């Protein structure tokens, strides 16, 4: 059973930088499992900036939907796999689903898979439950799904961190 690290926090809180720092401790080669795509020029620029920051010791795998399958496929190929990010993956799943039940089933499959992997995994996710109640049904469904997913994945993790203003706090 490989180590599983779960990192949550708000937007621009330092989650990805912490994840990359922790991943560096495992050595190279490192796998970066990206769940978001370049839907516009601004996102493409962000992706390129992140790739440049990570450097050549990382291999990027893009998988917006079949996260558990991608982890299974790449298990054993890297010293560590970093998934960035769970909430983009949930967005992709929710927008392809009518009620979120399918997305939650995918999260449960992922949580059940994690203890079976041989490669350490670092999961990055946004904390979306600390703000106001969203004003529309889709946003509320997303917030509820993300909250439940974060609970399930944090429970399955060996270490759990939350980041605030670039500072990590270890919870577990």
TrEMBL record:
Pfam families reported in the protein's UniProt record: CobU
Keywords, alphabetical: ATP-binding, Cobalamin biosynthesis, GTP-binding, Kinase, Nucleotide-binding, Transferase
GO molecular function, one term: kinase activity
Reaction(s) this enzyme catalyzes, per UniProt: adenosylcob(III)inamide phosphate + GTP + H(+) = adenosylcob(III)inamide-GDP + diphosphate; adenosylcob(III)inamide + GTP = adenosylcob(III)inamide phosphate + GDP + H(+); adenosylcob(III)inamide + ATP = adenosylcob(III)inamide phosphate + ADP + H(+)
Gene3D superfamilies reported in the protein's UniProt record: P-loop containing nucleotide triphosphate hydrolases
EC number(s) stated in the UniProt entry for this protein: 2.7.1.156, 2.7.7.62
InterPro entries, alphabetized: CobU/CobP, P-loop_NTPase
Pathways per UniProt: Cofactor biosynthesis; adenosylcobalamin biosynthesis; adenosylcobalamin from cob(II)yrinate a,c-diamide: step 5/7; Cofactor biosynthesis; adenosylcobalamin biosynthesis; adenosylcobalamin from cob(II)yrinate a,c-diamide: step 6/7
Protein family per UniProt: Belongs to the CobU/CobP family.
Function: Catalyzes ATP-dependent phosphorylation of adenosylcobinamide and addition of GMP to adenosylcobinamide phosphate.
UniProt protein name: Adenosylcobinamide kinase
Organism of this sequence: Geotalea uraniireducens
Lineage, broadest ranks: Bacteria, Pseudomonadati, Thermodesulfobacteriota, Desulfuromonadia, Geobacterales
